[in-house]
Design brief:
This protein is an all-alpha fold and about 325 residues long. It has helices spanning about 1-45, 55-70, 75-85, 85-110, 115-120, 125-135, 140-160, 165-170, 175-195, 200-225, 235-265, 265-270, 275-285, 295-310. The chain has 14 helices and no strands. It has a domain at about 35-120 and about 170-295. The chain starts with a helix and ends in a 12-residue tail after the last helix. It is a multi-pass membrane protein. Its main location: membrane. Belongs to the EamA transporter family.
Length: about 325
């Protein structure tokens, strides 16, 4: 009996150690993922005066798609079946979330600083929750409404740079509005992806959506080739593109999928807020940006709103099952 108990305890210890090790790896992968993602904002801002946004967007998703495609070759049959069954839906979801969203953020970075963009993007979970309420009918309690309003006020403080007079004069940075629009697009992407329930594993589905994003970004990129004199890539543009497409693109997407498998979607997604911190730190060292008082005030309101939304979730009444 003692041996049996010892064996059970040892097995439990090994299971707990394995689970702890898996979680530790998952968190490490997630931290690296969001660090690489933060670098995309720095690279895009660095070449914003030399490289047009849709060129950066198109080549980023296309190169990431080409790198990840061989990794899912065992799923080509199921990928082809899904593409035949739901092509327009895949194009819509992938185009909104991985092309239009990125293009808007890159346009915004031509006029807004990277630090502000990183803070604004932290609103994505709240935007997703609001859109899910109207599109999917998911519950949204009183505290979620209050938290959303507080977080929205935080974004307003940042956009008007803490000056109510700027709001009265409509003196706002158009780039920051583009970043807000990009965050809304990503929230919409998350909701549409949840509603679609594509029957495909995460990484193969990501590859399909990246292909859809490349197709969506292509017309915008071709328009830039005809109209934007910055369309010729120079040395800085190639360096930035190499970063956003490979470590900040394919590798980042792969690591995010890995972190979701190890931690679950909820915990992996909540680590998105690390990206805001990383963007601010990297922007300070590489772009010479400094946090201003309105950044702190706005970020404080956003954090309070996020705490209300995440910690004071509405209670759902369980549905009684029939005997």
């Amino acid at each position: 009996m003692a041996i049996h108990v010892l064996a059970v305890d040892s097995g439990a210890v090994r299971t707990e150690q394995a689970a702890g090790s898996s979680a530790a790896v998952g968190y490490s992968v997630a931290v690296l993922c969001w660090l690489l993602s933060a670098g995309v904002y720095i690279a895009a801002k660095w070449v914003s005066s030399e490289m047009p946004p849709w060129a950066l967007c198109f080549w980023r998703v296309l190169i990431a798609w080409a790198i990840l495609l061989p990794l899912v070759r065992g799923h080509f049959g199921s990928i082809a079946a899904l593409m035949r069954a739901r092509p327009l839906e895949l194009l819509l979801v992938g185009g909104i979330g991985l092309a239009i969203c990125q293009g808007m953020v890159f346009i915004g970075l031509e006029y807004a600083d990277a630090t502000t963009a990183g803070i604004i993007v932290a609103l994505i979970p709240i935007i997703t929750m609001i859109l899910a309420r109207f599109i999917l009918g998911e519950p949204m309690g009183t505290w979620q409404v209050i938290g959303s309003v507080i977080a929205f006020l935080g974004i307003v403080v940042i956009i008007i740079k803490g000056s109510p007079a700027a709001l009265m004069r409509l003196d706002v940075n158009s780039g920051e509005l583009w970043v807000v629009a990009g965050a809304v697009c990503f929230g919409l992407y998350a909701v549409l992806l949840r509603r679609a329930k594509f029957e495909l594993e995460r990484l193969p589905l990501l590859v399909v959506l990246l292909g859809a994003a490349a197709l969506t970004a292509l017309p915008f990129y071709l328009g830039e080739l005809a109209l934007d004199e910055r369309s010729t890539l120079d040395g800085s543009g190639l360096i930035a593109l190499a970063y956003v497409a490979i470590p900040g693109g394919a590798l980042m997407y792969y690591l995010f999928n890995w972190s979701v498998e190890a931690l679950g979607a909820a915990r992996a997604g909540m680590l998105l807020y690390l990206q805001t911190i990383f963007v601010a730190v990297l922007a300070y060292f590489f772009l010479g940006e400094h946090l201003q008082s309105y950044h702190f005030k706005g970020a404080a309101l956003i954090v309070v709103g996020l705490l209300f939304v995440t910690l004071l979730k509405p209670h759902t009444t369980p549905v009684a099952t029939k005997p």
